[in-house]
Amino acid sequence: MKTTKRLISMLLCIVMVASLLAACGSGSKPAAEDAPAASGDERITVRILKGKASNEVNLEEMEIFKVMGEKFNIDFEFDNPPQDNYEERLNLVMMDDKLPDVIMDMPMTDILKYGEAGVILPLNEYIDNKMPNLKAAIDARDGVRKAITYADGNIYYLPMLDERVSGNLPYIIRTDWLKALNMESPVTLEDWEAYFEAVKTTDLNGNGQNDEIPFGSYDMVGLRNFVTAFGVLDDFYTDPADGGKVKYGPIEDGYKEGLTWLNEMWNKGYIDQEIITMDFSAFSGKLAQNIVGSFYGPLGGMLAAQNATMSASVEGFRADATVPPKGVTQIHSNIDQEPRAVAAAVITASCKNVDRVIEWLDYMYGAEGGMLVNMGIEGTHYTMQDGKPIFTDFVMHNPNGLSPKNAVGTYSFAQSTGPFILSTNLTGQLDDEAVVKAKTECIIPYLEESKKYVIPGSLSLAPEMMPSAGRL
Ligand SMILES: [Ca+2]
Questions:
Q1: Strand order from edge to edge, sheet including 158-162
Q2: Per-residue pLDDT tens for 318-327?
Q3: Which of 57, 435, 437, 445 is most buried by its number of CB atoms within 10 A?
């Protein structure tokens, strides 16, 4: 008994000395001075504001937080408004005297504003001295540090390091309709026009009405991306055909040619007349009517979702991505810059236990925490097979009929955004077959050419990754 006590007090001394040394080594840090250095000393409460993605349950129900709460001796308290109400909620919360400890999904512009005002903490020193997992992940990826550092030299947010192959949101086409028309998937603009005409003039949904819409989308960006076939992008880009000169697409000649072509398609009635007014959910409703022949959107939220939901009501339904339309060029617009580092979490000046919070957050960037966040709990959500974690039927064939990604959303936030590394190596198995096909045949082969149009040093976020989009 005595020996045990002595051992414990010796250990405590070692811990205290170690934490003193650690504190000395890392320089001065605001708001961190009175924080206990090691987890488990004292149970703490950590308050988190994060938007609730449509494919997730409430954070407080997620098992990964229960596991992490026990491991780090933390009680998590969540403010978890639906994504549609997130910004309103954030603005309200930011007026409180006592802010949440951690805010996730804060827009980039707000981060700079609150960072400069001292409302959220600069994280450079924490990352370098107290977040070994995140530091290693940043050091291993060229350009991430630069991408997450603001002009004032500070890093204000912890990134989600997203390893997914990224490219333009592709055009998606009804493969079953192509088959019925005895046509191949379109490559050139002539191919597209021929498909549009065939859809417009054929009763492909078999309802006896001429109600088919050749092309539809939930925004004009989707439509305007056809201009890439004319050698321009619908934004700023560098032109490899002109010595890398920076250009703005809408004032270039190619863009005018593109608009002329689109205008022609519009006049022929090939483009949904409601394209200007529809949002994502209204357009999803339109897709459900089995009248749209081609469209545009994210691989998960559009392509996989359509194949999953429509095949129940439309026999033989099948949608696939297409290659970028080919004209003088064949490239993707809006390609993601690598590395992709999404703003995932900030720590506010109200946080009283910064070191403890940092220790927990860093865990999610490491091997064990990464496995927990990406895969879940071994035995329940995945099993090890030949040294590789494989999702169980709970995820892949969910007993409640959830899609694999939505099944993950019942226990982790891995399929929306958060401070962790989204590992394609681990989670690629969630992609459905049409998505894998889209990546390998329609995106990856065109990435290298497309990257020549990217302005070096710029960082863009794929629309499907924007927290406010809510379309995953
Ligand atoms: Ca019809």
A1: 74-79, 44-49, 102-104, 341-347, 158-162, 421-422
A2: 999 999 999 9
A3: 435
Give the distance from CA 181 to its chain's centroid.
36
What's the 207 CA to ligand 1 centre distance in angstroms?
A: 5
Q: What gap in Å lies between CA 112 and CA 118, rounded to an integer? A: 10
pTM for this structure? 0.66
Q: How far is the CA of 316 from the centre of ligand 1 (A)?
A: 16
Looking at CATH, the fold of the domain delimited by 171-334+432-470 is given as D-Maltodextrin-Binding Protein; domain 2 (3.40.190)
The half-sphere exposure of 76 on its side-chain side, counting CA atoms within 13 A, is: 26
User: What distance in Å separates the CA atoms of residue 383 and residue 415, rounded to the nearest whole number?
Assistant: 19
Instruction: Give the strand pairing for 158-162 and 74-79.
Output: unpaired
Write the class of the CATH domain 4-12+30-163+337-425: alpha beta
Which residues sit opposite 245 in a β-bridge?
A: 239
142-194 confidence digits (pLDDT tens): 888 988 999 899 999 999 998 776 666 899 999 999 999 999 999 999 999 99
200 Cα: distance to centroid of ligand 1 (angstroms)? 9
